[in-house]
Amino acid sequence: LLNDIDLQFVQCIGEGWAAPLKGFMREGVLLQTLHFNSMLTDPNDLTGNAEFPQRRTNFDDYSTKLQMGERVDMSIPIVLPITAATKKLIGSSRQVTLTAPTGKAVAVLTDPEIYNYRKEEVISRVFGGMDPDHPYIKVMMASGPYLLGGEIELLERIRYNDGLDQYRLTPKELRERFIAAGTDAVYAFQTRNPTHAGHAYLMQDAGRQLKAMGYKKPLLWLTPLGGWTKPDDMPLDVRIHQHQVIIEEGMLPSDTVMAIWPSPMLYAGPTEVQWHCKSRRNVGARFFITGRDPAGIKRSKNKNQMTVGGDFYDGNHGRYVLQTSPGLGEQKILSFAKVVYDKKDNKMKPPDKNRKSDFLSISGSTMRALAKKGAPPCPDAIADNWEETKPCIPNGFMVKRGWELMIQYYQDPKNQQWIGYSRMMSEPLIAPGNFVKKGTFGKPSWTLYFQNKEGENISPWHDLQLYPSGADASGRIVNMMVEIPMGRMEKLEVNKEEKHNPIKQDVKKNKPRYYKYGVPFFNYGMLPQTWEDPAKKDKDGHMGDGDPLDVMEIGSKQLPTGTVVQVKVLGVYALIDQGEVDYKIIVINKDDPMASTMRTPDDIDGLVTERLADWLKMYKTAEGKEVNELTNDVMEGPLKAMSIIKETNDHWKNGREAGTI
C-alpha cells in the first residue's frame, strides 16, 4: 500500500524524473545518496557495472568493482517505508504489487530488498539537523521501521483524476514540446508559491541573460511542484490556475511551458534543491533559476532541539551549494539575490542602497494578510504605514485576476473545494440499491444516503435489521452493512451525528482520512441496531466507544459500500482504545465458498488470524499513534461474539427508548 508521498515518488521513478534510478533505493544506493549525494552507475557497461544500482546490496562484496563507473548526482532518499506486517507478507516473493491509496494497482516492484529504516541517520544526513516538528521529518518518524527497495514498472500512466491532469506532462511529452517550440535553450523555474512580480522578475531577467549569451529562442519552463506539501502551503489547484492567469496576462512570456512536477516537498534546503535541479536536467533544462533560500523552511518552536525558531537553513546556502554542485554537467545555474518592490516605478528589482526608503520588501506573510483582508490596489503614492492603516496591494505586484484568486483562497482557506496537492481521486464502489450521493468522493462533502422503496431517507444504523427475516439471537447469522470494501483505503463510516446517519468519509482537520497501514484484506462495516453504550463498563472497567459494533468480513469477495449481507459470526477481538472497548466482530459471508468450512476461529487460516490481530494493534501507528491494545491476541469464539451482539442490541434498544441515540 502506497500513501500519497509514495505514489508521487512512484511517478517520479516510473516517468524518468529520477533517472538513472529505476526503483525505490536499495540499501547500497541509499548509503551512497546519504554520504555522497550521488550514485554509482555505468550506462555504457564499460566496467561491467551497468546494473549496479539494480543489484541487491551485498556487504560481503570486497571487489574493486564497487569503485568503478561514474557518479551521477542523487541528493535525496527516494525510499519506500513499510511495516513489519508488510515485510512478513512479502516474505520471499519475487514481485510486489504497489497499490495507490484508492486501491488501484499502479506498479510492480521486482526482486524486493528489505532493510532497516535507520531514520535518525537518514534525517541527520538529509536535513543536517533535527526538529521534531519539521513537517517532513514528522512524516518520516511516523512511517514503518523497514524500507523496501527494488525496481518498478508502471502498469499504466498515473492519473489523479482531480481536474489537473492536463497540466501533468511526462518527461517525454515535455521534450516533444521543447523540440516543437524550436528552442535552443530551456530554462526552468521551480515553485511551490503563487507567482508575483518578484518571481516574474527572475524569470524575465533569466530570459534576457540567455539572449545576451547569444541564444536566439530561449524557452521558459514554469514547473510548479505538485506533490505533498505542508498544510499551510497554498493548494495546488489555486497555484496552477494563478500561474495560468499570470501567463495569459503577459506577466511571463506567452510561449511559457507550464507543467506540474510530481515530486513531494521535503523542505530539506541545500540537499533538496539539488534534486529539484537534477530532475529538470533529466528532461532537458540547460539552465535552472534559483533565488534565496530554495527549499527552505522556518524552524518550529519545539524546545526539544538545539535551535528554536528562525530559518532552518542560511538563506544563501542552498543557492551557493547548487552553484558549486559537482553533478551539474553542462547545466548552468542562473542565480539571483533577493529583489524588492520599487515604489518609484512599481517594479521588482534588486535594491538600491542609495534610496532605501523607495523600496518595499513584501513577504509571503504580508501577502497572505493582505489577501485575507481583500486588499484593493494601492494608490499611486503608497503611504509608509500602508499595510496597517489602508491595506492595499502595490500596483504591478500581481496581475488583477491573479490577485483575485489569492483573495478567493485566503478568505476561505478551509473550503473543501481546494486541492492541496496531487492526491489520486477515484469513484466509490457502491452496491446496487436505493442510494442518493452528494458531493465529490474523496472530499469531506461526499455523502451517501440510504433510501427505502418509497424514496425516503432511512438510517442504515437504526432502520436496517440486525437479524435476517425469520432469524433471532439464537442463531449465528446477522446482517452486516458494508462501509469499506476489501482493497479500498478510504475510511468510510456511518455518521452518527447527521440525520439519517449517511455514510461519509472520516475526516481529520478537515482532510479525508485513509487507511495507511496496508491494503485492507477484509470487508469492513457495522452491525445495524447495535450500540456500544459509553455509560456501560465491561468487567475490566472499560466503557463502550459509543458506536455501532464494527465487523470485519474475511471472505473471498469484495463487497461494495452499502451492501447489506447475511454473515456467519466466527469470533471477536476486543480492542482497547484510550480506555474504551471497541469490539471487532469477525464474520464471513454465509454464501462465500469458504463459509461451509468455518465455524470457529480454529477453522480460520492461522496467517489470516495473525494478520487480523496485527492490523488491529498496528493500523494507527502509520498515523504516528501508539500501538492499540487487544485484551487477547487470540480471537475469542462465536459464543462470546454472539453474547456481545445481543448485549449491544439491548443497549441500542434502551438508547432509542431513552432518546440517547
SSE map:
Blueprint: H1 4-15, E1 23-24, H2 27-36, E2 38-41, E3 70-73, E4 81-82, H3 84-90, E5 95-99, E6 105-116, H4 119-127, H5 135-141, E7 146-154, H6 171-181, E8 185-191, H7 197-212, E9 218-224, H8 236-248, E10 257-258, H9 269-283, E11 287-290, H10 317-323, E12 332-335, E13 340-342, E14 347-349, E15 359-360, H11 364-372, H12 400-410, E16 435-438, E17 447-451, E18 457-458, E19 477-484, E20 492-494, E21 503-505, E22 507-508, E23 511-512, E24 523-527, E25 543-544, E26 549-553, E27 564-577, E28 580-589, H13 606-618, E29 629-630, H14 638-658
Description of the molecule:
By secondary structure, the chain is of the alpha+beta class. It is 24% helix and 21% strand. It is built from 14 helices and 29 strands. Helix 8 (236-248) packs antiparallel against helix 12 (400-410) and helix 9 crosses helix 10. The mean pLDDT is 92.
Helix tally?
A: 14
Termini gap: 36 Å
Oligomer state of the chains in this structure: single chain
Shape type: globular
Question: What are the low-pLDDT stretches, counting only 5+ consecutive residues below 50?
Answer: none
Q: Strand pairing plus helix content: what structural class?
A: alpha+beta
The helix fraction, in percent, is 10-25%
Strand content: 15-25%
Quick rundown:
Helix 9 (269-283) crosses helix 10 (317-323) and helix 11 crosses helix 12. The strands form 7 sheets. Strands 1, 4, 5, 6 and 7 form a 5-stranded antiparallel beta sheet that branches. A 5-stranded parallel beta sheet has the order 10-9-8-11-12, sandwiched between helices. Strands 16, 17, 18, 20 and 21 form a 5-stranded antiparallel beta sheet that branches.
